[in-house]
Amino acid sequence: MNKKIGIMQGRLLPKYQGRYQAHPLGYWQNEFPIASKLDLDSIEFILDYNNAEENPLLAHGGLESIQKIEEASGVKVRSICADYFMEAPIHSDNTMIVDKSISILVRLIKNASLMNVKDIVIPCVEQSSLKNERYKNNFINNIKKITSIAEDTNINICLETDLAPKPFANMIDLIGSKNVTINYDIGNSAAMGYDPVEEFSAYGDKISDLHVKDRLFDHGPVPLGKGNADILKVFELLSKNDYQGIIIFQAFRDDEGVEIFKDQLNWFHGNVKL
Description:
The protein is of the alpha/beta class. It has helices at residues 31-37, 62-73, 84-87, 95-113, 133-143, 147-153, 165-175, 186-191, 196-203, 231-240, 258-271; strands at 5-8, 42-46, 76-81, 119-124, 156-161, 180-185, 207-212, 214-215, 221-222, 246-249. The N and C termini lie close together (7 Å).
């Protein structure tokens, strides 16, 4: 099992514009040396809808700036959380939105391939939920248009959804690409009341990116060990599946980030066997 731990971008820095999760535009570089001192392996970069073209993932010269700080710090970008597609879903009924989003995703895949990124996480939750059957069918049809690009570059299009285990596994099968995988968010699954044993039975072998988080059932995030997530069971299941994917801390944060992260990392190391 992979024993290297990464962090969701921004969790070690003061909040950007007071937002819980956002790319820290203008000071994102500051997180890499902090992550290095905490012995973290990677940072999962965020692509927001707002200011997307200013994000180093898309901006002119941006990839070079990321690679420079990677080399200086030893901390890599191995995954991208594309929150952009929560605001502009690939499964929208608006064809203009869909065309633009597919164009953005193609650019993102091509740039990711230049950076040794493994996973691009597409969150299909909350306002971009796939529980509506029409939206789910839209997503399947639209994502199929670009799976060949993901396969050619060996980038995983890594889906996070609010679907129950069997419908989620069925959707992955209908898309039918080895490079369409699953992001498993421990806290979000707990908040929706899903059983990790049932989830791993349905699609455990398809998981390539893991978000470590705790939440109360039907409520928001709380510090690790304080919610309804059975984190120990999840890691037991991951071990049985010989999970070799990315482990990203997306745990509870406050306005500053660092100290509450350290507390949760200590809890994690004291309770979870990797």
